[in-house]
């Protein structure tokens, strides 16, 4: 394992899967270089780009000794779920993870504010049970910035910041479309807290609309419905979620496409995520969300996580 390029090991490491991001790479990389807390190392996996991304990445790797570019063979298509995770895992193999307290899966189609990573590290330091976190994504529609809706109880897939201990416990990412939902729920299942915050120093610009990277936004909503089915989401929760999304773009059609993707998967008896205990936990949490509201249900689990951790610490000190 070659990690000679790692010069600092007291902060965090970035791992970036990249495929055909030439349009966004400079803005994304430059926003990282402006950070008040720079990464100790950065691994970028060029997942078979054909648009000139590789040349741009090589340019930066020549300038930055702590940035390494890994090239993968072009598979011919963009693979939104499994392909992204496979590329991430290849980057992860090049890192001696024990040397880092935190790691981040960081996409190259985002532009982050200057104190983004400093703020996330501060939040992790303040709360020892915080396992994964992120800011909130916004996209530009004309001259207006519009929030891409995501729950406060999730860390978003484009900038998933993880405590290494938590990442190891959940077993990394699942090679599936809903990898960035399963990881959050699995972390919560194991007693960790997951969060994202809509605050000025954590609002970042998503240069490509979420869910639109493969054959358009509507197709992305259908893929989300399939992903929810794969993860184990119950039908009632899925129906409520689809209705809630009706007002989001594409208006009406987006929510319908999500439900259609879910129902098509059910009709075809598509294979689901194999962990039965996880699916049971997820549905219990979703039922609690429907009964109490998502915020109250999540705070209840967060309180349990902190109490369990406190009891374990007290018991450990008495032994």
Explain this structure to me?
The chain is an alpha/beta fold. The protein has 2 domains: 12-206, Spore Coat Polysaccharide Biosynthesis Protein SpsA, Chain A (Alpha-Beta Complex); 217-291. Helices cover 45% and strands 17% of the residues. The protein contains 11 helices and 11 strands. It has helices at 25-33, 53-63, 82-92, 116-126, 164-170, 179-189, 217-231, 235-244, 253-267, 276-292, 294-318, and strands spanning 12-18, 41-47, 67-72, 102-106, 110-111, 130-134, 136-141, 144-147, 159-163, 193-196, 203-206. The strands form 2 sheets. The protein has a 7-stranded mixed beta sheet, with helices on both faces. β1 (12-18), α1 and β2 (41-47) form a beta-alpha-beta unit. The protein is globular. The termini are far apart.
Question: Briefly, what is this?
Answer:
The chain has 319 residues and is an alpha/beta fold. It folds into two domains: 195 residues, Alpha-Beta Complex (Spore Coat Polysaccharide Biosynthesis Protein SpsA, Chain A), CATH 3.90.550; 75 residues.
């Amino acid at each position: 394992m070659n990690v000679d390029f790692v010069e600092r090991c007291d902060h965090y490491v970035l791992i970036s899967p990249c495929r055909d991001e030439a349009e966004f790479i400079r803005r994304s990389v430059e926003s990282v270089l402006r950070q008040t807390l720079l990464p100790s190392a950065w691994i970028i996996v060029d997942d078979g780009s054909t648009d000139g991304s590789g040349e741009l990445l090589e340019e930066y790797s020549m300038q930055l000794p702590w940035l390494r570019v890994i090239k993968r063979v072009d598979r011919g298509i963009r693979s939104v779920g499994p392909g992204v995770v496979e590329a991430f895992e290849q980057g992860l193999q090049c890192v001696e993870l024990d040397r880092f307290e935190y790691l981040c899966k960081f996409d190259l189609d985002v532009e982050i504010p200057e104190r983004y990573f400093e703020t996330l590290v501060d939040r992790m330091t303040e709360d020892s049970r915080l396992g994964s976190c992120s800011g909130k994504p916004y996209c530009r529609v004309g001259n207006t910035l519009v929030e891409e809706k995501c729950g406060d109880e999730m860390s978003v897939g484009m900038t998933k910041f993880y405590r290494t201990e938590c990442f190891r416990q959940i077993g990394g990412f699942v090679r599936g479309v809903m990898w960035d939902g399963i990881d959050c729920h699995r972390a919560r299942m194991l007693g960790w807290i997951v969060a994202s915050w809509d605050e000025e120093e954590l609002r970042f610009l998503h240069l490509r609309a979420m869910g639109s990277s493969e054959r358009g936004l509507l197709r992305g909503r259908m893929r989300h419905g399939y992903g929810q089915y794969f993860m184990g989401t119950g039908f009632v929760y899925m129906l409520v979620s689809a209705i809630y999304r009706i007002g989001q773009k594409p208006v009406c059609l987006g929510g319908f496409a999500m439900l259609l993707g879910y129902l098509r998967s059910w009709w075809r008896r598509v294979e689901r995520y194999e962990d039965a205990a996880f699916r049971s936990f997820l549905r219990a949490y979703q039922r609690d969300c429907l009964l109490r509201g998502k915020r109250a249900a999540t705070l209840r689990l967060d309180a349990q996580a902190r109490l369990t951790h406190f009891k374990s610490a007290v018991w450990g000190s008495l032994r």
